[in-house]
Design brief:
The complex is a heterodimer of chains A (282) and B (336). Chain A is mainly alpha-helical and 282 residues long. Chain A has eleven helices and no strands. In chain A, 75% of the residues lie in helices and 0% in strands. Chain B has a domain of 225 residues: MetI-like (MetI-like fold). In chain B, a hairpin with a 4-residue loop joins β1 and β2. Classes of the chains: A mainly alpha (282), B mainly alpha (336).
């Protein structure tokens, strides 16, 4: 009896150790990736990197100024297009989404959330690039906006639903119309949560590459025309990482470090925004 | 609120029987601002279903000439010859499924371990930071995973993983052939790392949704802590955990960039994990810009349509399972 008891306790201890080791492995993967990014990318982050454009293939030097600006434009424009639709849909789901129509919208948002981004990419290509006759940053932004909307809609809904009913009732009892209650009281209260959702949505698309392959395409020169092909950091990393030149690989690591830093900053900002509201308990 | 002082306050019965009355209108929100507000929100929200309809229609229309030409042969023939205009997607379908399943094989124990450790065993102060760090894995862009895979993971596999694997299992078809780097194995390992945070996050929420009484009952009957977890907590959340795994599968199936950069992109079916393979998403990414003929493009769109249909089915199944455990909570919709 006692031997059996010992064995059971040993199994318990062993399995506890195992799951702890597995958690450690997962964290180790993150540490390794970030570590390599810093080790291989940080040394290339000089003035040239941020201010110069790419030099012709095979020559050394140059930077990715065009890609940094391009990322800002493509992602910014995607935000302008996607955020209002995402937030609006989220408000609709929270305020009026109890019926069958709401169920449909919610279901469609979940379907779109799981849609591979490359599929959205070829869709944007057929609808924007082909009719216009040329690749453009705008088409890339539309593709990214499409990816952003369902996610922002679902988080906005979730956050608005957290607002206590009593607040809404108090406003209505004071004679506030529903639309002002919704915007000035409910959405206002849920603002931190909505901002978090938006930041996470933007962070998610900022690193996307697949939907930009046939839309923004990439550009070796500096361009701010949204009607022309535009370079982004993600596209630049793809080109440079799969290319044959040592100098390209160096720039790819540095660009990846910058892109990763950008995405992490957005993710941390999102985390911080939600803490302001809900305290450290989350 | 608009009732005049000399009128009696409307009772609920009045309100219900007098749909034209002012109080009724306030309650139903039928003032002009409300109507406009509701119309705007509804229009915006309807853009999602509308978009989905357009997306599906577009994919079907673009893929139609390929669907008509090849029918179901498209799925199980492996010739992919743009010059002769004969297209069969079997190697891509195989590669997509094989890489995703292999990734699950690696990711599931890891992710379940993380979830179980964080909900059941880890000290309180460690839970938040560790779950945050694991979730950060989901924030790393796919193309960065690809870069890391090319320059770190593949050399690592080549020197430390493949030689012992070949020494032990080299005689089986699964580990035969020369390892050049870009391979099914490399693609699957990177996919595994990428889907761990999704599976872990959802599994964790599923386990958190298991009532504490389950644990207490098992411990009260003399179970060890592990026995309580394994016999009382995990079985209770089983369908939710399966849902979490399937959600990870959905992510893996549609993943494009990292896999494209690592899997070798060879249009061929090989049982060996050390050989290059191809996935549906990678084919679209690689070939769409060089598709010169209508039929070639149409074949690629059919691949896209297939990929879309598969991921929708997989995700729907996952959500159904998760809802059964964590009804009413938005488990799984939160990606970070």
């Amino acid at each position: 009896m006692s031997a059996r008891r010992l064995r059971r306790r040993m199994v318990s201890g062993l399995m506890t150790g195992l799951v702890a080791a597995l958690s450690f492995t997962a964290v180790l993967a993150l540490v390794l990736i970030v570590g390599h990014l810093i080790a291989k990318g940080a040394s290339s982050l000089d003035g040239n990197f941020f201010t110069k454009n790419p030099v012709p293939a095979g020559e050394s030097g140059g930077g990715v100024a065009n890609a940094i600006v391009g990322t800002g434009i493509v992602v910014g424009l995607a935000g302008l297009l996607g955020l209002p639709v995402g937030i609006g849909t989220g408000l609709y789901l929270a305020e009026y989404g109890s019926g069958r129509l709401g169920w449909i919208v919610r279901f469609v948002a979940d379907v779109l959330n799981g849609t591979p981004s490359i599929v959205v990419g070829i869709f944007a290509w057929t609808w924007l690039v082909k009719p216009m006759g040329h690749f453009s940053a705008l088409a890339g932004s539309v593709a990214l906006a499409v990816l952003m909307v369902p996610m922002i809609a679902r988080t906005t809904e979730e956050m608005v639903r957290l607002v206590p009913h009593s607040l809404r009732e108090a406003a209505l009892a004071l004679g506030y119309p529903r639309w002002r209650t919704s915007l000035r009281i409910v959405a206002r209260t849920a603002l931190a949560g909505i901002v978090t959702g938006c930041l996470v949505g933007v962070a998610r698309v900022a690193g996307e590459t697949a939907p930009l392959l046939f839309t923004a395409l990439g550009n070796l020169n500096y361009s701010t025309h949204i009607n022309h092909p535009m370079q982004t950091l993600s596209l630049q990393i793809y080109t440079y990482a799969t290319g044959p030149f040592e100098d390209w690989h160096r720039l790819a690591w540095a660009a990846a470090l910058v892109l990763m830093g950008l995405v992490l900053m957005l993710a941390l900002a999102a985390r911080w925004a939600i803490r302001q509201r809900h305290g450290a308990a989350r | 609120m608009t009732a005049l002082p000399h009128e009696p306050m409307p009772t609920p019965a009045d309100v219900a029987t007098d749909p034209q009355g002012p109080t009724w209108q306030v309650l139903r929100g039928v003032n002009r601002g409300d109507r406009v507000y509701r119309t705007i929100l509804t229009t915006v929200a309807m853009s999602l279903p509308l978009f989905l309809i357009i997306l599906v229609t577009q994919l079907v229309v673009s893929a139609w000439s390929s669907i008509r030409r090849f029918g179901f042969h498209f799925l199980w023939t492996s010739v992919w010859d743009p010059v002769a205009e004969v297209f069969g997607a079997a190697p891509m379908v195989f590669g997509t499924i094989a890489s995703s399943l292999l990734a699950l094989l690696i990711a599931v124990p890891l992710a379940l371990g993380v979830a179980i450790y964080l909900t059941e065993f880890a000290p309180k102060w460690l839970r938040q930071p560790v779950s945050f760090l694991v979730e950060l894995l989901a924030a790393i862009p796919s193309v960065v995973y690809g870069l890391w895979g090319i320059f770190v993971l593949i050399p690592f596999l080549r020197s430390y993983v493949v030689p012992p694997l070949r020494a032990a299992f080299g005689w089986t078809p699964m580990f035969s052939g020369v390892f050049y780097g870009n391979s099914l194995l490399a693609g699957s390992v990177i996919l595994a790392i990428m889907i761990v945070p999704y599976i872990a996050a959802v599994s964790r929420e599923v386990l958190l949704a298991v009532p504490g009484t389950q644990r207490e009952a098992a411990l009260g009957m003399g179970a060890t802590r592990w026995e309580a977890v394994w016999t009382a907590v995990v079985p209770y959340g089983r369908s939710g955990l399966v849902g979490a795994v399937i959600l990870g599968l959905g992510r893996a199936l549609g993943e494009t960039m990292a896999v494209t950069m690592l899997i070798g992109n060879r249009h061929d079916i090989s049982l060996s994990v050390l050989q290059p393979a191809y996935t549906m998403a990678a084919a679209i990414a690689n070939e769409c810009s060089e598709a010169t003929t209508r039929l070639y493009l149409s074949a690629l769109f059919e691949v896209g349509l297939l990929l879309f249909v598969i991921t929708v089915l997989v995700n729907a199944a996952a959500r159904l399972l998760i809802w059964r455990v964590a009804r009413g909570t938005a488990v799984g919709s939160r990606a970070l």
